[in-house]
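Tutorial, part two.
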Amino acid sequence: MSSRQLLQLILLVQALFAAGIALAAVQWLDAAPWQGILLGLAAVVLVRLGINANNFLLSARVASPTPPAFRLGVSGQLRMMAEEFISSMRLTSWQVPRARPHTRIYPDAALPPVLLLHGYGCNSGYWAHLVPLLDAARISHATLDLEPLTGDIDGYAAQIEQGVQALCAQAVAAQAAIVAHSMGGVAARAWMRAFGSARLARLITLGSPHHGTCLAAFGVGLNAAQMGRASPDGPACDWLRALDASEDASKRALITSIYTHHDNIVSPQTTGELAGARNLALGGVGHVALGSNRRALAAVMAELDGLRQSQSAHRDELAAALHSTAVASGHHPR
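Running the prediction step on this input gives:
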């Protein structure tokens, strides 16, 4: 079963639950039909709100210390929780159930094409808010649905390789950048281990559990276990430690890890810090909201825009090499 099908099934269950509450209210409480419908919808929202709040409570028990500069007052915490709840409702009730992978190529693109990788239990619908920004910047991009839903993260590497090759071919580019949320960032690193980094211009991860999350224990599937961590002070699982050991300084230099000190799924939150990578910390943003929060999206776009300089340097190096070859062969450019 795909994430799309699973969320569609969950939506059906929620609709039946709401209908049952509405019918009971009309028959047993003499409520008007519209009152019963509102009561049913409210019951669903309250259950979803409770689940969301529980995630914050669970993550707080194993959280890393929040630096003073990122600490929030009561109003800031309420705003963050509201944003996370709205983002979660929108993602699971609208974006994921409707999403299909897509590719969009801009022949005049000035930046490398971007492959978008979603996180655990999600699909390409996660990127509904980043895609319009890529379109506005005329950056070629493609989304990819990693399947099976509860599969081996190493198994996703071949899918990512196919996605990178196809995107580079369609965009006529030597390299692609990858933007990945949560599990997608770990999967991209597994792809680097399996296929190398020659085709990678930049890997930008959002809220990825690079050293494991204690909340993975509540997940289902091999991929959840591969993101596990027994305690906030303990080491990551064996799989993540092996992945960590496979990376040298050159690979880490290609990675930007954007994480939030208030992540309600990836905890301890400093698991997002990756030695040798460019680490960007945010505050006041939840896990799901990283895909729609303006500051998080601005950070992603800034990292992509930073590739202009490296591309320009690459073109200068290529031109210099061609010039040297021409001089050595006696063909002087005019």
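The two ends are 62 Å apart (CA to CA). In part three we will examine how such features are distributed along the chain.
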